[in-house]
Amino acid sequence: MTFLCGVARLNVRNSVRISANQEELVTEPLLLHHLKRNKLKVVAIDGDLSVVHQDSVQFDSELPEFRTQGGVHIHADKLTVTSPVLMWVKALDLLLDKMKRASFTFSQVIALSGSGQQHGSVFWKKGAAQTLAQLDPGQHLSQQLQDSFSVQDSPVWMDSSSSQQCQDLQKAAGGAMRLAEITGSRAYERFTGNQISKLQQIRADLFQQTERISLVSSFAASLFLGGYAAIDYSDGSGMNLLDIQAKSWSQICLEATAPNLDQLLGAPLPSASVLGPVSSYFVHRYGFSESCRVVAFTGDNPASLAGMRLHQGDVAVSLGTSDTVFLWLQEPQPALEGHIFCNPVELQAYMALLCFKNGSLTRERIRNQCAAGSWEDFSDALRETPIGNNRNIGFYFDTMEITPPAVGVHRFDPNDCEVSGWSPKVEVRALVEGQFLSRRLHAERLGYSIIPGTRVLATGGASANKQILQVLSDVFDAPVYTIDLSNSACLGSAYRALHGLVAETGVSFLDVVKKAPEPQLVCTPNPAAQQVYDQMLKRFPQLEERVLQKTYA
Ligand code: ADP
């Protein structure tokens, strides 16, 4: 038995930084951390969850005619960032042809699902539904879908050109906080609703020709389905349009965005929904079984959560260039920072994402200044200083931070008085403790709580450092495990395909994936840590407030 995950994972973390808009500059790296989104990838697993096939198509090098860099076009205004939609279609043609040449047995695939970069959108032209339903198996998809899009260049997650629409939406919703309460996030330029609103205002002609709007995920599912696929709740939460509690489009947001939008979007569905059988095009061209099911596709971040097999109480911390925190939430508390999405694997639950811009680069700076540029010396400093750092607390925001939006280095002594410096070893511990206290505080503000059985799953470059992970374990008072995230969105999609087949019978996602490889236990919390950090967490928010006041003074 084989499961296919047809995944549209697009665009990149490349070296481009969008720099024109202060607000977006602060928020933009949110999704950068582990997503190398410049390719389309496939992973097939068998009934034991073992990977039996993988392949990929790199946009820039294998589809050079589209002239993308990192899968995208950055326009002259530096704010508008798009990807050619036909490039994505052609990448799927190429990928399936590669699999055929590798004698992949399509006939054994019993279900498929996938993920796409969050926020990107596809505008289908009037008549496209008919084309999708009557695809000729003798031709490639890209030949037949050339005239199916009213917008050739799809807005993608790196776009930050819709500031005005963000302001308008927040105003219509009753403010940024109210919008966050409804949709899980305040208004963000890249979020799809604001992109739709912009298109409707500046290219009303193209908007008029549009019969359906998909996310990248539901667009890819539509190709397999031979008809328009529903947007799933989880990826739909990245649009500033979905009421994440009611799980339906928010009327206020729809009306503030564009006319007739509910018709153009179609009704959203639970992420584990079976959308239908694969279209006859794939049966006849590649030999898929007629009974192969297409399970709703979702966003790459939700798919990663599935790939990591996060469950209640867990937190995943990616320690890369910037640090990102993924949370499993039961009772979300939307805020002006971070993003809350419907959970892709459990209907009643939620997930959240938080991004911290000052991660590894700041740790490297302190390593260079205080530990002779050596991670070993840096680790020794952590080993040789006490838990709680004798009540010294530091904030290290070398560049304008996202969470919280503050800047500068601020050191507080045990009496909460600001001081100008510490010994190198104290500085090293203050940095790492300060970073992890902040990760915990902001996670808890979104509704996260540590429970018995909580695990911290660590990934990214700094997860190679056991002493750093020991501090993480102590601050969260939970064991830390390491995981490899490189394939998590793809694997998560394959797991979701499998779960989709049985979800209606009440079988849980975790039951379906229990045979998957376990993460590695690296450290357990020091028994003395809980009391020390509980005390520090009482002081930390007040000190952070002072840092914020200084930033905006
Ligand atoms: P990216 O966000 O670019 O994918 P990675 O997850 O690969 O980043 O992490 C790279 C970072 O990992 C480097 O900037 C480096 O500071 C950090 N790193 C690598 N090894 C160690 C170590 N032993 N201890 C702490 N940090 C480390």
From TrEMBL:
It is an enzyme of class 2 (transferase). Its EC number is 2.7.1.17. It comes from the Eukaryota. SUPFAM superfamilies: Actin-like ATPase domain (SSF53067). Residues 316-499 form the Carbohydrate kinase FGGY C-terminal domain. Pfam families: FGGY_C (PF02782), FGGY_N (PF00370). Residues 156-307 form the Carbohydrate kinase FGGY N-terminal domain. The keyword Nucleotidyltransferase does not apply. It catalyses: D-xylulose + ATP = D-xylulose 5-phosphate + ADP + H(+). Phosphorylates D-xylulose to produce D-xylulose 5-phosphate, a molecule that may play an important role in the regulation of glucose metabolism and lipogenesis. Belongs to the FGGY kinase family. This is Xylulose kinase. It comes from Ataeniobius toweri.
